[in-house]
Design a protein that fits this description.
Layout: E1 2-3, E2 9-15, E3 20-25, E4 42-45, H1 50-57, E5 63-65, H2 69-76, E6 83-86, E7 96-98, E8 102-106, H3 111-116, H4 118-123, H5 125-131, H6 137-142, H7 145-150, H8 158-164, E9 168-172, E10 178-181, H9 183-189, E11 194-201, E12 206-210, E13 218-226, E14 229-239, E15 243-250, H10 257-274, H11 283-306
Parallel strand pairs: 4-6, 5-6
Antiparallel strand pairs: 1-2, 2-3, 3-4, 7-8, 8-11, 9-10, 9-11, 12-13, 13-14, 14-15
Helix pairs in contact: 10-11
Length: about 300
């Protein structure tokens, strides 16, 4: 017996080596009190390889599921797919490794696994800190990096966090080969492909992710610098209706950290107001986000100088 949701009991029957599961209600006529709809029967496919998953994904009606956080909620709200493709048995999509130049995290890496990873703590400690503030223990245990992006939910936090780190994701389609895309473009387009890996270039920038202003917006600010390149501040502001908006700005050279933060935040505000497609940012969001960006930039500048 498989339990899905607080009041949802399901029966499962395995059929074939491909891992297909037929799911249906234990008692369709039960008059249970619930605030959401009863999940309708569906076939659950659990492929063991990326190629098997791509073959199943050829049918556009198949719903792809990673950790299941968002998919289960959609099912409870009435979505009724006939087939669900679960990626939990595809071992190629798990694991964390590095060659010293790039940190690679499998798309099915859960937030909790990334938080607990010694490699993440060593090379991108700010990532572990940011992921540790997401959701509750259930979300951190079940939610995956790939699922958070491929869900297409604009306000989910994993996309701006990875965008602030200048990460790329590798997507594989049935046409063969992999292409590298930035996570924001994948979030907005949700291509018909399987996300395989998240790549974070090393050394990773220092960054701060602030979500205390949600549901209005969240802010991620990263500072990248090096001996042979100027300091760049990467800002990612995310709103529920517009999703993440990234701006890469040169860090001002003059003044105290606070003054430089205020100057950079004013430049961000000017760019946002002039950019097409940002007219839905209300004045509250612009005002408060500008203050947040200024303070976070100043904090990063002080930390960078102290380091």
């Amino acid at each position: 017996m498989l339990l899905l949701g607080q009041h949802q009991e399901r029966k499962i029957a395995l059929s074939g080596a491909a891992g297909r599961i037929q799911c249906g209600p234990m008692n369709p006529g039960a008059n249970l009190l619930r605030s959401r709809k009863q999940i309708k029967p569906f076939r659950l496919h659990a492929p063991a390889s990326i190629q098997d998953a791509l073959d199943l994904q050829e049918d556009p009606s198949v719903l792809v599921m990673a950790g299941g956080i968002e998919v289960i909620d959609r099912l409870k709200r009435g979505m009724a797919p006939k087939d669900i493709l679960w990626l939990g048995h595809v071992g190629e999509l798990s694991g964390i490794e590095t060659d010293g130049k790039v940190l690679r995290l499998g798309a099915m890496t859960s937030y909790g696994a990334a938080i607990a990873s010694a490699l993440v703590s060593e090379h991108v400690p700010d990532l572990a800190s940011a992921l540790g503030g997401l959701g509750n223990p259930r979300v951190r245990h079940q939610g995956t990096l790939g699922g958070g992006i491929m869900s297409g939910v604009l306000h989910f936090d994993v996309t701006p966090i990875l965008a602030a780190l200048d990460a790329h994701v590798l997507m594989r389609s049935r046409a063969g080969g992999e292409i590298a895309l930035d996570p924001i473009s994948v979030l907005r387009s949700t291509p018909a492909a399987i996300m395989t890996v998240v790549e974070i270039p090393l050394p990773a920038p220092h960054f701060i992710f602030l979500r205390s202003d949600k549901p209005a917006f969240s802010v991620a600010v990263a500072l990248s610098s090096g001996p042979d390149r100027p300091a760049v501040v990467r800002t990612v502001v995310t709103t529920p209706d517009k999703g993440p908006l990234r701006q890469d700005l040169m860090m001002p050279n003059d003044g105290s950290p606070d003054a430089r933060g205020r100057t950079l935040a004013a430049i961000w505000r000017h760019i946002v107001q002039a950019a097409p497609g940002t007219d839905s940012y209300d004045w509250y969001t612009q005002d408060v986000a500008q203050v947040r960006i200024g303070r976070l930039t100043a904090d990063l500048a002080r930390s960078h100088h102290a380091g």
